[in-house]
Amino acid sequence: MYQFHIFICENERPEGHPRGSCARKGSPDLTAVFKSELAKRNLKGTVRANKSGCLDFCEKGPVVVVYPEGIWYSPLSEEDVREIVASHIDQGVVVSRLLMK
Q1: What is the residue extent of each domain of the chain?
Q2: Running along the chain, 101 residues long, what does each successive block of 10 average in pLDDT?
Q3: pTM for this model (two decimals)
Q4: Which CATH superfamily is 4-98 part of?
Q5: Per-position b or e across 45-82, b if 16+ CB within 10 A of its CB
Q6: Phi-psi region of 84 (alpha: psi -120 to 50; beta: other; left: phi over 0)
C-alpha cells in the first residue's frame, strides 16, 4: 500500500478537439517531474505517481488527483508540481491555489 497515489491524466484527444486534452497541455512533462521529485525525496515504495487515462475534466487540464484524500489539482508548471510534492506529499498541507476549480 502506498501512503499517496498520484494520478496524472495523459489522455490525448485530436488537435482542435473542443474539450482539449491534458496531454496536449503538457501533462507528460508534469508526470516526469512528479517522478523525479519523488525519487529525489527517496519516496519510492511510499508514494506512487503514474499517468492515467482520461479523468473527464479535460477543459481544466492538466489534471492530477492525489489519493487517498481525493484531492484534485490543476498544475500548470514544473514549479507547481514541485510545490504539490513539497507541501502536500512531504508536509500533508494541501496547495489550495492549485486546487481544481
Answers
A1: 4-98
A2: 96 92 96 97 95 94 97 97 98 97 88
A3: 0.94
A4: Glutaredoxin (3.40.30.10)
A5: eebbbebbebbebbebbbbbbbeeeebbbbbeebebbb
A6: alpha
